[in-house]
Amino acid sequence: MEDFQFDNGEGSFSVSYRKALSHNMPINHFHSTYEIFYLMSGKRTFFIKDRTMIIEEGDVVIISPNILHRTTNTEMPKHERLIVNIHESQMTSVNDAYRDIFQPLFEQAYFIIKCPLQDKLAIESVAQSIMQEMQEKKPGFEMFAQTLVLQLLIICCRHAKQNALVPLETPSPMHERILEVVRYMNTHYMQDLPLHLLAEKFYVSPYYLSRFFKEATGFTFVEYLNSVRIKEAKKLLEQTSLKVSLIARKVGFGSVTHFGRVFKLVTGHAPLYYRKDK
């Protein structure tokens, strides 16, 4: 099957299939949608929120809206994956009890499904049907594909409710050390956080921190800090009526001009785009 990318143009539903011989990850690393990452073959190292973990063939990763994430292992690039992004508004079509049906989605920033063979076969069958719909594009294909995605979510949520989610091990002590820095940045992003001061705080050299931060998370130090700040700014733009200049200061930017430039680089839009409905 050939690679494809579908987006409904409304930011509420997209499907991407890729059989890759090289490492690739989109610029935008957080979304207003739930992301379903199904690894069909290969092995990937995933950074999500504040952890790095290894994902294997047959695993499904479900990530909540506005959670920073990225795949990191450029040294093992060969893989095949299906990615679906779906907005919560699409789930309401199930019935009024959709929050009960999809309960695990709303309780965690992310979860990883490692299924027994029977569930793996069911997931593979649904995934193949989604891809077939997106490629053939018969009348009603988008709606049909959305119903299939909901079936996929139900299978995963049933598994999550019935089985304790096994915590995945961090790949190495180096990863755990860097992730301590990540957790600190996640809660202190509004402060001035130059690389050399964080290196001093965590008793490592700036060179070590810069080099291994990228290896552990997939982000450069500055790229990650900017992404965290922009993610929080986007939330404030959507949920409050604070002025853009105040939001820029609240999330750690000293210059509104610099904030606007970084915001567009990270999200693809100017800040006021997220005020369009107000």
From TrEMBL:
This protein's record includes keyword Ligase: no
Keyword Transcription regulation: yes
SMART domains, per database record: HTH_ARAC (SM00342)
InterPro entries assigned to the protein according to its UniProt record, in alphabetical order: AraC-bd, Homeodomain-like_sf, HTH-like, HTH_AraC, RmlC-like_jellyroll
Chain ranges of the HTH araC/xylS-type domain: 179-277
Source organism superkingdom: Bacteria
Keywords annotated in UniProt: DNA-binding, Transcription, Transcription regulation
PANTHER family the UniProt entry points to: ARAC-FAMILY TRANSCRIPTIONAL REGULATOR, HTH-TYPE TRANSCRIPTIONAL ACTIVATOR RHAS
Protein name: Helix-turn-helix domain-containing protein
Protein's organism: Paenibacillus plantarum
